Structures are given as C-alpha cells and as structure tokens.
Amino acid sequence: MNPESFADPQRQHPMGLAGYFVKNLYGLVKSFWPIAAGLALSSEVFNYASWVGLGLLLLVGVSAFIEYRYFKFHLTKEALVVHSGWIQKERMVIPFERIQAVHLHQSAWHQALGLCGLKVDTAGSGGSELDFAALNKQEALDLRALLTGGAREGVNPEQPLAESVEQEEPEPLMQLDTRKLFKVGLTQNHLRNGLIAVGAFFTVLEPLERWWGTWIESLPEWTLLLFAFAWVLLIIPAIILFVFLAVLVSVVSAFIKYYRFRADIQGADLSIESGLFRRNEFRIPLSKVQLLDWKSTWLRRKLSLETLQIHQARAQASGGSQGLGITIPGLEIEQSNLIIQSVFPKWNPSVVEHFQPDSYFRYRLFLFALLPLLPIGLVLGMGWLFWIFAPFWVAFRWVTTQRKFEGYRVTTDGVGVMIESGWWFKRRTLLQWHQLQRVSFHQNRMIEPRGLAHIVLHSAAGSRSIRFIKESDAKRIMDFAAYRIESHVGSWM
After folding, report:
1. What sign does the CA torsion over 215, 220, 221, 225 have?
2. Full domain range(s) for residue 479
3. Phi, psi at 483, each rounded to 5°
C-alpha cells in the first residue's frame, strides 16, 4: 500500500470487525464468568441459557461493529490522529514525540489472512495505548515505519516511504536456537508452572470423579486399606511427577512464547520478534529506553545466561509512572554488552566509582533472617530437635547474608549508574543520570544516628533505591544527579 493515503482518514481492514468481536467477547467472559457459572447451576436459568447466550453474542457483535465502524485514523506532519465513538465522539491526537514504541502482533487468523495487529505505546498523561485490531501487513509495516521515524524527526505523509524513513539492513544481535530455548525453559519458575500443571491435571480428571468414586465404593474393605498404604509409598513418585510436569510446562511455555526469537539493531531502533502461535514484533527506539534491568538465578548464571528487561516510559493518570518492559531471555555476556553500547553508548565501565552499603546493612539482613527461628521453636517445642536445628540455620543464614551483602554494590561512571543486588536471585539495573525525573533522600531513626541514608532514583520507567550508604555519599550523589538533570540539553524521554 502507498503510504501517501495515510494523509486521508481511513478505517482498518474489514476483518478488524472480527478482532473487536473476539476482544469484546473475551473481556465479557473474563469479567463475568463467576456470575455466569453460578447462574448456570440454577435449573431455572439453565433453561434460558441459550437465549441469554444469544443475546450476549448479539450485544457483543453490535458493540464490535460500532467500534470498527466509527474508528478512523490518519497522519499529519506532526501527529497520528484517531477518530472514534458513536454517541460520544472522540478525537485523539498523538504527537510523534510522545510515541514510545510501535508493536506488531499476529495471531493465527492474522497470519492465515496476511494481516497484522498494531499497538502504539505512548507516554502521555493517561499512559494511553492505541490498538489497531487488523491492518494489511504491508500497511502495518508502512505505518510503523512512519510512526517510528516521525517520533524521531517528523515525517511528511505525502512523501514516499523511501524518502521519509531511511531503510537500513538489520544488524544481527541474537537468535534463540532450540538448545538455548531449552535452557531458558529449564531455568523458569518451576514451582508456579508445576502448580499450573497439577491444576490442569485435576481439571482433566474431574469428569471421571463420579465413575472413580463409584468404583472405589464397590471394592472390598481390605483393598481400601491397601490403597491407603499405597498413597504413602506414592509420595516420592508424586514429587518426581510434580517436578517433571513443572519442567515440562516451563520448557513448552518457553517454546511457545520465544519460538524463532530474533533481536536486531535496525538503524536507531531495536527490533524484537518472537512467538509460535502468536507472532509479536516490537520496534523500540533506542533513544526512548529509560533503563535496563537484568535478572538471573544461580542456575542461569551457571549456564552463562541472563534475562534482560528493557523499560520505556509510560505515564499514569495517578501521577506515578510505570515502565513498559520488553523481555529478552537467554542473553550471553557479549550480547548484553552490545545492547549496552547501543542503548547507552557513553557508558564507560573502565572509569567508575563504587559505593558499598555500610556493614549495618549486613547485620540487619542477618537478624531478619533469624526471625523464622521463633515460629519454628514454637512448633518444635524448644526441645532437643530445635537446638540441633538452630545452629545449622544460623550458620546457613550467616553465609547467605554475607553473600547477599557482598553482591550489593553501586557503580557510576558519571554518565550512568548501575545498581547490583541479590545473590541467588541476582539483579542489576543500569540507567542514565540525565533521564532521572528526581532524586529523594530518606532517613529514619535507626540509620540517622549511624550517619547512613537511603536515596531513591525516580525515572519515567520506575524507581530504584540505593540503601544504607554513608550520608555524605548520599548527599554527593544527590548533588551530582541534580547537576546532570539540570545541565542536560535535549529530551529526557
């Protein structure tokens, strides 16, 4: 499609009507399914269930038609303009400089019909998000290119695309092959996924409950005693089955979510594609990134992997802010360094200053780690078993506390600041001083006499804390941050 037509108001692809219908139906079911389930149990209501269902489908269909029919959009030289609403008409003007990112997504029916959904994430007073249900794929690509190009330098929709937005060959950054995808799945949250698997398992068994109960009641009494004893013997196999299901769900979910994962540097943007059944393509302007957040577990570090979250600004009506995060799993150290160089090119880890928390922080962590001994002692009755267990717990928590304390550090090169914390679950955050909105200073009655303080770094993507450092260091950091914020020339977002 010729991008020149974006200058005239237009609707989405006709299949957008189906997209709105599915979205509205999902929202209705998600909001009212407990009420519907309760009413379905009533025999009187059940007799009219078909008519009620038909009426709701008709209502959803009418709302989807209105939403599609009265949704129009076009581009000006400085903004994306959207018209919507039937009874209450609304005109939304989104300046290009407020656009944080433009994302493409393709469900199965999108891919079958050669269509795309498109989301526009903005940083406005309400943190609005604009969602196009269905566009022609080429139309979606052209619109994304114009919006992301316009966000940087402004575009003229009457110019050909090749003239308004420079197309560059992508610079390969990383891909997830089958081996690395398996590693990512292997290091997921197995406890949560195991509970999901067990829940699904019992849901499948529920229809057999009546038959199973009848069969059990027909057995002789001695067999019931045998079954009761057998459950004890099945504890270890049940634990093994739970772990197997947990790992299986983790690996399968990783393959579904990150299948054919690819990250490229395309000019001034970071492009990310992933997904098996639902393909997602994120285009992130590098200049819009507020902070980088790495997370890793002990196991992932042993496999030389870590997970990165890229946060952009998203304002909220409440006055706070919450960053829009996009996840890149299975990163190696070299790939992380390349992203840092692309996003924060002035970050220089060879010229740094380190800040460590005071030793009071270590003893505080240790004392809080000993608190579980009190309920454990009450359960065990302070008997000999407790006094055998307690020394092992104290020694274990001292070692873990020491490792956690050593893992907490703050590093700055004058341009950015990196905050590292944790041991088993390790986290490090990198942000730039000039992108901060403000810095706050905190003291309480416990740390003030010791000459310690906390400072909180507030950005458009969220807040990060530096805790239990010397009061003099905290004030020096605050003064430096204020200087960098006030002296910076240009946009911070």
Report:
1. negative
2. 262-357+408-487
3. -65, -45
How far, in Å, CA of 334 to CA of 305, rounded? 11
pLDDT tens digits, one per residue of 2-56 = 556 688 889 999 998 888 888 888 777 776 655 555 555 555 555 666 776 788 8
Calculate the alpha carbon distances from 477 to 6, 181, 419, 459 in Å.
48, 41, 13, 15
The predicted structure's pLDDT at residue 162 = 40
Number of H helices, E strands in the chain: 17, 20
Alpha helices in 313-381, H assignment, sequence order: 333-343, 359-370, 373-380
Instruction: Note whether 159 and 188 are same-domain residues.
Output: no
Q: Are 429 and 325 in contact, with CB atoms under 8 Å apart?
A: no
- Please check whether residue 280 is in contact with residue 261, taking contact to mean a CB–CB distance below 8 angstroms: no
Residue spans of the chain under pLDDT 50: 1, 125-127, 151, 154-167, 315-323
Total number of domains constituting the chain: 4
Two structure tokens written together for 204: 């499948």
Structural tokens at position 208: 């057999």
Question: Are 377 and 238 found together in one domain?
Answer: no
The reply to whether 173 falls in a domain is no
Is residue 493 in a domain? no
Answer yes or no: are the C-beta atoms of 176 and 276 closer than 8 Å: no
Domain limit, last residue, from 208, 237, 258 = 258
What is residue 492's predicted lDDT score, i.e. its pLDDT? 57
Boundary of a domain, candidates 226, 258, 290: 258
338 Cβ neighbours under 8 A, 6+ residues apart: 173
Q: What is the pLDDT of residue 452?
A: 95
